[in-house]
C-alpha cells in the first residue's frame, strides 16, 4: 500500500521509524502507537485519493465494498466510507 500512497502524495509518505515516532508518541511519552507509514496529504483531493487507495488495499476498509458490489451505488459506498473514516478519527480524539 505504501507504493500506491507514494503515487498519490509523492515524498510525503514517511516510513522512517525515527520520524514516525514523533507522530505516534503522545506528549507525556507514556503512550506509543504503531504504524508502518505516515501520510501527509497536501490537498483535499489527495485525501480523497488516499481513502480510495485504502479502500482497495486495507482489509478493514475493503469491507465497505466497491460500487455495484452487493447492489450498492457509488454514492452509498462513499457515504459508508466517510462514516468509517469519521469513526476511526473519533476514537483517536483525546477524552477530557
Helix percentage: 55-70%
Mean pLDDT across every amino acid position: 76
What is the terminal separation in angstroms? 34 Å
Side by side, the strands of the main sheet go 1-2
DSSP summary: helix tally: 5
Which H/E pattern describes the elements?
HEHEHHH
How would a textbook summarize the main sheet? 2 strands, antiparallel
Q: Total number of β-strand segments?
A: 2
The coarse silhouette is globular
Low-pLDDT segments: none
Report the portion of residues in β strands.
under 5%
- For the record, the count of structural domains works out to 2
Tell me the Rg in angstroms: 15 Å
Structural class: mainly alpha
List the helices and strands and how they pair.
Layout: H1 2-9, E1 13-14, H2 17-24, E2 38-39, H3 44-57, H4 59-62, H5 74-92
